[in-house]
Design a protein that fits this description.
By secondary structure, this protein is mainly alpha-helical. It contains 21 helices and no strands.
Length: 512
């Protein structure tokens, strides 16, 4: 293991050194920091040029400048990073990166996990329902989303998701034709998802359409969008549905111990609903993070105590259910400040933001209000990134599972009489993830470099914006800082891919 890691790290360092040298040489040719002075009409033009040449060490050959830069970058290994300074702003590159990296992480974290989760789930469901209406619909939507330009998606989201929705909040009621139309669409979608015989589809359509109509009518009559909330009853219903769904996928509903452990954590979450409201008054990031860990730990403990034929299944299902219930309790508390936030002076009834990462001049130190402000600014860029990535993950996971389902060992598992759930979840799903193990880490590393177009349209000050602004200003040091971060992430992603391969396929050994 250590030998493998040592070899990979050494080869990665060599690759990174070669890549940084090539990029530095290209930047030295492509970017001329004296360009603005050449066009200047200042009387001391020559003195300004000479001063900048001395300041930027431009009279030294580019390879020597690279070695000087590399000496400072090498200090990062001992905690003394020196990636130079921006000659435009005068700020050290380390400071620029320290402000850009958290902003980019904030933007891509939620979108990446949601895109991966939704894409794999929908892709697998599409593969299991091959050549059905649902499969054709998913395929069509995937190709449409994959082919859409990201800048166009972002502009449409601004137009409909922000401006349109904010206008709608002035009078959040649905007309009767709108309720009928949306109910029919909802019924069609659910009957395609559930599938089955004509009778089953008709029943599903009727139930889904009626439920959609009832929900829309309730929203219109109660003005729920102006002051939303979930409450313990809704959270309980969602938790029970999640408990049954997670148990059905991970252990099967015949495993009563697993089902009871999942339902127990739902009951535990509801019992703690009101006590948590008092704890939320003192909420901080670390308190919420600790509560999240407590959700996972409580699920594992409950699953362990219930045991069953496979104790790990009970623990896994209970932990997942506990996390979902905890997330909805958190969302419910966040909804509690929606009315105050939306009607504050800086928001003025238009809560969905179109630019920036926070509302300018928005005061206060209330954790929930500031968190909601962050979420409203994250909403549109997150959706934009999800839509593009979701399409590719859906296609990859569908194709991968279809290939695996045709393998001999899958036919053998079915011939032994194993339930289809076990064949799909335990035998096929794990191997279907192997091709995705190559794509996902590299995509995450690439996104870490900043979703450049999305950041530009939504005025998000992250790594992508830093890269673009530095190029426009012909400022090489921030560009090199950007490249060293992205290059390091890609190198680490390649190493992680090898370990993911070994975890998914026992035939692969990293120390082979």
């Amino acid at each position: 293991m250590l030998t493998f890691i040592g070899r990979r790290v050494l080869s990665s360092v060599i690759v990174l050194l070669g890549a940084t040298f090539i990029v530095y040489m290209l930047l030295s040719v492509a970017l001329d920091p004296l360009e603005d002075l050449y066009a200047s009409s200042a009387p001391n033009k020559e003195q300004l040029i000479e001063s900048r040449i001395r300041a930027l060490n431009l009279d030294t050959p580019a390879p020597i400048r690279y070695l000087l830069w590399l000496q400072g970058a090498g200090g990062c290994l001992i905690g003394q990073c020196d990636l130079g300074s921006s000659w435009v702003t005068g700020q050290p590159v380390i400071n620029l990166l320290s402000s850009a990296i958290p902003s980019t992480l904030q933007l891509i974290t939620m979108s990446t996990f949601l895109a991966i989760g939704l894409g794999i789930t929908v892709g697998i469901a599409s593969a299991l329902r091959q050549y059905t209406g649902f499969d054709y619909g998913v395929t069509f939507m995937s190709f449409v989303l994959y082919s859409l330009p990201s800048f166009w998606v972002a502009v449409l989201l601004k137009l409909w998701g922000a401006i349109g929705f904010n206008d709608f909040l002035a009078d959040p009621t649905f007309s009767t034709p709108a309720i009928i139309g949306l109910s029919v669409v909802g019924g069609l979608i659910w009957q395609a998802v559930v599938g089955g015989a004509v009778r089953r589809r008709a029943i599903t359509f009727a139930i889904a359409a009626a439920a959609t109509a009832a929900a829309l009518a309730f929203i219109s009559i109660s003005g729920w969008l102006l002051d939303p909330s979930l409450g313990p009853v809704t959270i309980g219903l969602i938790g029970v549905a999640v408990a049954f769904g997670v148990t059905a996928l991970t252990a099967g509903l015949r495993n009563r111990k697993a089902l009871y452990s999942a339902l127990t954590v739902v009951a535990l979450g509801l019992a703690l609903y009101y006590p948590l409201q008092f704890a939320f008054q003192y909420a901080t990031f670390w308190l919420i993070f600790g509560m999240g860990l407590a959700c996972v730990l409580s699920g594992l403990i409950v699953g362990f105590l219930f045991g069953g034929p496979d104790r790990a299944q009970s623990m896994r299902g209970a932990a997942i259910t506990a996390v979902v219930v905890g997330v909805f309790i958190f969302i419910d508390r966040l909804m509690g400040v929606w009315y105050a936030y939306s009607n504050s002076g800086r928001i003025s009834g238009r809560p969905i933001a179109t630019i920036g990462s926070q509302t300018p001049g928005f005061g206060g130190n209330d954790f929930w209000v500031l968190t909601l402000d962050t979420f409203t600014h994250l909403l549109l860029p997150t959706i934009a990134l999800i839509l593009i990535s979701f399409a590719s993950y859906t296609r990859y996971s569908r194709a991968s599972l279809l290939e695996v389902m045709n393998q001999d060992y899958i036919r053998t598992a079915r011939a032994k009489g194993l339930p289809e759930r076990v064949v799909t979840v335990r035998h096929a799903f794990r191997n279907a993830l192997i091709p995705l193990a190559t794509i996902v880490p590299l995509d995450i590393a690439a996104l870490f470099g900043g979703a450049i177009i999305t950041e530009r349209i939504f005025a998000w000050s992250g790594m992508g914006s830093l890269f673009l602004h530095s190029l426009e200003a012909r400022d090489a040091n921030p560009v090199m800082g950007y490249f060293i971060v992205v290059g390091t992430m890609l190198v680490l992603a390649n190493i992680i891919v090898d370990f993911v391969y070994a975890a998914l396929d026992p035939r692969i050994r990293v120390n082979a």
